[in-house]
Design brief:
The structure holds two protein chains of two kinds. Chain A is built from 17 helices and 19 strands. Chain A is of the alpha/beta class. The C terminus of chain A is likely disordered. Chain B is built from eight helices and seven strands; from the N terminus they run βααβαβαβαβββααα. Chain B has a seven-stranded mixed β-sheet. Chain B starts with 5 loop residues before the first strand and ends in a 17-residue tail after the last helix. Classes of the chains: A alpha/beta, B alpha/beta. Chain A: Belongs to the aconitase/IPM isomerase family. LeuC type 1 subfamily.
């Protein structure tokens, strides 16, 4: 009998090209996604006059800077933004790298597009110069974000030096109640462990509640691993995974698919495998959760009040809470449901897949949003699908803008910004100071919760709005 | 990359937790080529008001702050976005070392790849260093070989992985190191392709790749 092995270790070992005397591993990279921000890395390559080692394993995707009002580069007013998109086209073309560009019908946010196209597969090691690369771990791959120097290294060698992280398992037992989503699981564990609670760890999510999540919900959960400081997040592939992947454009077909599935089915943590840290949550502890501060760890169930720093015994926590409340323009002890909002945003690599749009639309159908806002689908194919289902009409009729796909207002690089002092209920991943624009105030929550906030003009428990609505729609995110 | 052994210099205290990379460099500046110098963007929205007027009270606007090479801060420094531009902003400003109780994983890797030392200290020690530095740039001494930091009478040790320490002490670059293993990589890739043939991207038959 061999020693019981974790999912993480199985995938890691299969990719270890070399281990140095100091214990660092040189890992083989199966997929490398590059977006507009890769220009620094391509410039480094040019300085050294190096080619891209494996252009066939490298994929270019325009998402961070793309306009959401047009698919026409000429329509981009800011020449510097235009230049970012053009540089990606030029660099990928020069090195023979496939590009999902602005005008491509498959264009989308890298972490939506990869799975959608079947480029993401179980058992791979995948990297991208974007911290939300952890998303792809939902398929049982090791996927993580890297910086520009590392992007250059992968371009030049198709490998990357890594120190092996510790491995933790987050188990969610029981079944999630209706209206509770993967976003709520993530915000709950991050609030509990802290925004650096998983620092130095690879995370495996396990347990009954995780197994019951749809593929799209698993992507949301793994996506947010980085917000708790995790190096990556993974879920063992199962029938849900294989069913999602079958017949995707870049997935092997026929005999090759069977062969792949046979291998993928071996990718799980053996019974008795040792984890460096075990964390267990019960599904019934998880409520619809929203952030109130400027770090994802500053999150609470919607029926609670924002903390009163005077009541916090830890002086560091009290200081942080005081600063967060000041930036967010909130009063100590204020009920979360008394917080009025100015705007909503539904989008990003975290929560802009078709199930997310359906969940938001289910709340908004026949309703008016009390505040302005926009919806930016996670990919152009998601947009097409949503339009085929009539979801675009629901958003437009509610008074929201129906935009093209891109990173958009999650990070504001394309100019989609929340104004200074404005409060935005957002399906995104970061409530950092200035993330959605200088002075912008962000509250993170699930798509249905953002829709509920839009309908009432303040933070709202979606369960109080949707009583009686078809539960199959409400429970989006669970199978 | 310039090696680091000892820094006998000025340090500044940035007494805040969760100084994420969005704060270190706001996204709107990341369209600029590196040649413009990213130091001007460092903590831009933290140290300027909405009109772009510098906050004279902010530590980086105090006399001699331009000569500071070490920043001391609180936990979870550099969390969030993988943007290496956050490190460029620190390095271009003149920083060679950041001291904190914990760092965002990706930030720390990026730092080492640019010769910026991410020195991890105990939470209590960070507080002692912050107190000793006060609210003006003050003398600080960092010794990478001995892994110690001194401000006035406060002396604390710091941790860093052996690999990173060696890289920083020698100013080594990964790409050069890796290319020495070129043959091993080639052999690995060939074996890997035999063992996991389905991982080779299979171009969709019905669709073409856009030229952007």
């Amino acid at each position: 009998m061999s020693t019981p092995t974790t999912l993480f270790d199985k995938v890691w070992r299969a990719h270890e090209v070399h281990r140095s005397e100091s214990g660092q591993s040189l890992l083989w990279i199966d997929r490398h996604f590059v977006h507009e921000g890769s220009f620094h890395a391509f410039n480094k390559l040019a300085e050294r006059q190096l080619p891209v080692a494996r252009s066939d394993l490298t994929f270019g995707i325009a998402d961070h800077y793309v306009p959401t009002l047009t698919r026409d580069l000429v329509g981009v007013a800011d020449p510097k933004v235009r230049s970012m998109i053009e540089q990606l086209s030029r660099n990928t073309q020069q090195h023979g790298v496939a590009l999902f560009g602005l005008d491509d019908p498959r264009q989308g946010i890298v972490h939506v597009l990869g799975p959608e196209q079947g480029l993401t597969q179980p058992g791979m090691v995948m990297v991208c110069g974007d911290s939300h690369t952890a998303t792809h771990g939902a398929f049982g791959s090791i996927a993580f974000g890297i910086g520009a120097s590392e992007v250059a290294h992968v371009l030049a060698t198709q490998t990357l030096w890594q120190s092996k992280p510790k491995v933790m398992r987050i188990t969610v037992e029981g079944q999630l109640a209706e209206g509770i989503t993967a976003k709520d699981i993530a915000l709950t564990w991050i609030a509990r462990l802290g925004a650096d609670g998983a620092r130095g760890y690879a995370i495996e999510y396990a347990g009954e509640a995780i197994r019951s999540l749809s593929m799209e919900a698993r992507l949301t959960l793994c996506n947010l691993s980085i917000e708790g400081g995790g190096r990556c997040g993974m879920i063992a592939p199962d029938q849900t995974t294989f069913d999602y992947l079958r017949d995707r454009p870049w997935i092997p077909q026929g005999e090759a698919f069977k062969q792949a599935c046979a291998y993928w089915a071996t990718l799980y943590s053996d019974p008795g495998a040792r984890f460096d840290l075990e964390v267990t949550l019960h599904a019934d502890e998880i409520a619809p959760t929203v952030t109130w501060g400027v770090s994802p760890e500053e999150a609470l169930p919607i029926d609670r009040a924002v903390p009163d720093p005077e009541q916090l015994s830890d002086p560091a926590k009290a200081r942080q809470a005081r600063e967060s409340l000041a930036y967010m323009g909130l009063t100590a002890g204020q009920k979360l449901t008394d917080i009025n909002i100015d705007r909503v945003f539904i989008g990003s690599c975290t929560n802009a897949r078709i199930e997310d749009l359906r969940a938001a639309a289910a709340v908004l159908v026949g309703q008016k949003s009390r505040v302005p806002g926009m919806v930016s689908p996670g990919s152009t194919l998601v947009k097409t699908q949503a339009e085929a289902e009539g979801l675009d009409r629901i958003f437009i009729d509610a008074g929201l803008e129906w935009r093209h796909s891109g990173c958009s207002m999650c990070v504001g690089m394309n100019g989609d910004l929340v104004a200074s002092g404005e409060r935005c209920a957002s399906t995104t991943n970061r409530n950092f100071k200035g993330r959605q624009g200088p002075g912008a105030r962000t509250h993170l929550m699930s798509p249905a919760m953002v829709a509920a906030a839009a309908v009432s003009g303040r933070l709202t428990d979606v369960r109080t709005l949707t009583a009686g609505v078809d539960s199959s729609v409400q429970a989006s995110g669970t199978r | 990359m310039q090696p680091i052994t000892v820094l006998d210099t000025l340090g500044v205290a940035l007494a805040a937790a969760n100084v994420d990379t969005d704060q270190l460099i706001p996204a709107r500046f990341m369209k600029e080529p590196r040649s413009v110098g990213y130091g001007q963007f460092l903590l831009y929205d933290v140290r300027h008001n909405e009109q772009g007027t510098p906050d004279a009270e902010f530590i980086l606007h105090r006399p001699n702050a331009a000569d500071a090479e070490v920043m001391v801060s609180r936990r979870n420094f550099g969390a969030g976005s993988s943007r290496e531009a956050a490190v460029y902003a620190l390095v271009d400003y003149g920083f060679r070392c950041v001291v904190a109780p914990s760092f965002g994983d990706i930030f720390a890797s990026n730092a080492v790849n640019n010769g910026l030392l991410p020195a991890v200290v105990e939470e209590d020690d960070a507080e002692r260093l912050l107190a000793a530095l006060g609210d003006t740039p003050a003398a600080i001494y960092v010794d990478l070989e001995k892994q110690l930091i001194r401000v006035a009478a406060v002396e604390v040790s710091f941790s860093i992985s052996t690999v990173w320490r060696t890289k920083l002490l020698n100013g080594w670059d990964d790409i050069d190191m890796t290319r020495q293993h070129a043959n091993t990589i080639t052999d690995f890739a060939a074996n890997y392709a035999r063992q996991f043939p389905w991982t080779a991207p299979r171009l969709p038959e019905t669709e073409i790749i856009s030229k952007g």
